[in-house]
């Protein structure tokens, strides 16, 4: 058969109506028998549904945009794979855009997604300008911020409970007898970095302890390594809380390979995220777990709920436990 195959030809071959063919390929209600006949006829004829044409009719592109700041941190490839698989299972197509923390670059990429007529957008550790928020609202395109909060915005936000996580680390280190505790923070331009630091410092202060040194690691491995060198030279800490695991691995490498220190015999190290590498014997990192599965589900609930016109919570914080391994001294009787 020559020429482009149409849904009408598929309907004739399957012995069903053209609307039945449309229902099968749009994911609408259709009996199993009808769906089987339609798909078999489509396969025999070489028919593929025109997704773009359907989007013009339905007003839905079935496209979700994912805007990501960076993939160096192994937390994000895992989270993005989970988000992508879950959205694809629900019949959505995924467009992934890479952006740094430059506001102009983020706005440009978000504008491109709006031009694609995306049904919704997920930003992962990316800030969104007020002007772009207004444009998304005017276009009725919901945006959910994943692993990043932003004050003064109407966007839905899903994070771990970073304040509680920071407090938990301070409590753990003080209970272990540490008194010279330093901090390589996550980027303080992000809510995630600020909240983890704030919780950590609040708990130290509550127990009449202080941080002997704090340097912003910017969520970058090289910056974290240099921060470790400076802290050890200037403050000689006996414990370091690092704002995420990606940086904590760099800190541990400096302590062991460059400074010939024992972890945790000389210096305890605690991270944040609990990426798979944290459990590797080479690092065996004590860290606060970000419950990525729960965070992904909360993000999907918020995004798809907004697409379907349901009211969604403006902020969702998911608490995560401290995972105790071998990189930090364990307090006696710690549960």
> Outline, from the CA principal axes?
elongated
Structural classification:
alpha/beta
Strand order in the largest sheet: 2-1-3-4-5-11
Instruction: Report the radius of gyration as a whole number of Å.
Output: 25 Å
* Residues in helices, as a percent range: 40-55%
Annotated CATH architecture of the largest domain: 3-Layer(aba) Sandwich
Reported by name, the CATH topology of the largest domain is: Rossmann fold
Question: Which residue ranges are poorly predicted, with pLDDT under 50 across at least 5 consecutive positions?
Answer: none
Largest sheet: 6 strands, parallel
What does this structure look like?
This protein is 45% helix and 17% strand. By secondary structure, it is an alpha/beta fold. The protein has 3 domains: 43 residues, no CATH class; 124 residues, Rossmann fold, CATH 3.40.50.2300; 129 residues, Response regulator (Rossmann fold, 3-Layer(aba) Sandwich), CATH 3.40.50.2300. The longest helix has 16 residues. The radius of gyration is 25 Å and the shape is elongated. 43% of the residues are buried.
């Amino acid at each position: 058969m020559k020429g482009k195959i149409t849904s009408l030809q598929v309907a004739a071959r399957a012995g069903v109506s053209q609307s039945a063919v449309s229902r099968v390929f749009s994911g609408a209600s259709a009996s199993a028998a009808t769906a089987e006949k339609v798909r078999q006829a489509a396969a025999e004829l070489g028919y593929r549904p025109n997704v773009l044409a359907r989007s013009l009719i339905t007003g839905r592109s079935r496209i979700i945009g994912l805007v990501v700041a960076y993939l160096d941190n192994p937390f994000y490839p895992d989270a993005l794979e989970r988000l992508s698989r879950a959205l694809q299972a629900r019949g959505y197509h995924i467009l992934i855009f890479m952006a740094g923390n430059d506001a102009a670059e983020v706005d440009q990429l978000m504008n491109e997604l709006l031009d694609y007529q995306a049904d919704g957008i997920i930003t992962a550790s990316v800030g969104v300008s007020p002007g772009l928020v207004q444009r998304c609202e005017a276009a009725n395109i919901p945006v959910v911020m994943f692993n990043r909060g932003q004050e003064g915005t109407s966007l839905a936000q899903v994070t771990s409970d970073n304040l509680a996580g920071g407090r938990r680390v301070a409590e753990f280190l003080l209970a272990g007898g540490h008194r010279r505790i330093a901090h390589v923070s996550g980027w303080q331009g992000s809510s995630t970095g600020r909240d983890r630091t704030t919780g950590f410092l609040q708990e130290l202060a509550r127990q009449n302890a202080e941080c002997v040194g704090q340097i912003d690691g910017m969520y970058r491995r090289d910056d974290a390594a240099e921060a470790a060198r400076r802290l050890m030279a200037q403050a000689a800490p006996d414990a370091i809380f690092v704002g995420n695991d990606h940086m904590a691995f760099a800190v541990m490498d400096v302590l062991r390979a460059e400074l010939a220190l024992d972890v945790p015999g000389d210096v305890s190290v605690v991270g944040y995220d609990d990426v798979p590498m944290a459990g590797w014997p080479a690092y065996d990192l004590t860290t606060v777990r970000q419950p990525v599965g729960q965070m992904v589900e909360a993000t999907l609930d918020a995004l798809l709920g907004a697409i379907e016109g349901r009211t969604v919570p403006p902020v969702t914080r998911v608490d995560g436990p401290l995972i105790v391994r071998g990189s930090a001294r364990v307090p006696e009787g710690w549960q």
